[in-house]
Amino acid sequence: MQAAGVVGAEDENLRRIDDFAARAVAQGAQILVTPELFATGYAPARVAVSDGAGLRTALGGIAKRHGIALVGSTVEDGRHISASLFDRQGAELARYRKSHLFGAEEQAVFLPGDELPELVPLVGLSVALGICYDIEFPEFARSAAQRGADALLIPTAVPATGDVGGRPPEHTYNAERISTLLVPARALENGVYIAYANHTTPGFTGLSSITSPYGTFLALAGSGEELLVADVDQREVGRARGLNTYLTCRRPELFG
């Protein structure tokens, strides 16, 4: 799910998630991943005092009403950015606290989580949660894959930067590369599916994606509102890891 969460409009944001859940079910989807802090809108300082427990109850209700597993991001106890995985009956199966806080705004109001994401069996896969900046650290995805994850479900909020650095194009940075370069690289090097759900432009980069364990895009959004749907198959995880044997050939005793 890619859309724009509006700060201060929780009821409207929840209604949008409800609408997307209905659309996802109609297209045969079994899991809906929503962007980071979508229910509150992404504004760390403003939403730190939001009612995370109440929003999680509402998100679980949406999952149950439509009979779809749902990943939603909320604030936990005013101290952590979290992501929750709800099953199709609305039960919260797992909750994960963001490990890597992005920028001064998040770091000023939140604490980083210090626990690994749980592995949860879902629709024939072993899935793990992450949040936004986490996936930009190779050890995060590698740890999940080493522990048995087949898929990573990642709510995200990547601010649009445009080309920055004041150099020729080949020596500038654009945050769009997180979606178009880093996410497929993480999928390829670990043999995992990645569902990566972002907010829309102009404030954010868009470019949400569903990436295969071969590092290819099964679906890639543009800049605006969009629902991505793709088929996943645990057998492809094993096949991808047989072709690209990074997990079995790595040398932790030498490189850590």
Explain the overall architecture.
By secondary structure, the chain is of the alpha/beta class. The protein has one domain (10-255): Nitrilase/N-carbamoyl-D-aminoacid amidohydrolase. Helices cover 33% and strands 19% of the residues. It has 9 helices and 10 strands. It has helices spanning 10-26, 44-47, 52-66, 103-109, 138-146, 176-190, 234-243, 246-249, 252-255, and strands at 31-33, 69-76, 80-86, 92-97, 120-122, 125-129, 151-155, 193-197, 209-211, 217-220. The protein has a 6-stranded mixed beta sheet with strand order 5-6-7-8-9-10, with helices on one face. The protein has a 4-stranded mixed beta sheet with strand order 1-2-3-4, covered by helices on one side. It is globular. The chain starts with 9 loop residues before the first helix and ends with a helix. The model has no long low-confidence stretch (mean pLDDT 97).
Brief account:
With 256 residues, the chain is α/β, with parallel strands linked by helices. It has 9 helices and 10 strands.
What labels would you give this structure?
10 strands; alpha/beta; 256 residues; 33% helix; four-stranded mixed beta sheet; 19% strand
User: Which class do the helix and strand fractions yield?
Assistant: alpha/beta
Total DSSP helices: 9
Distance between the termini: 36 Å
What's the number of structural domains?
A: 1
CATH-scheme architecture: 4-Layer Sandwich
CATH level 4 superfamily: Carbon-nitrogen hydrolase
Q: Which range best describes the helical content: under 10%, 10-25%, 25-40%, 40-55%, 55-70% or over 70%?
A: 25-40%
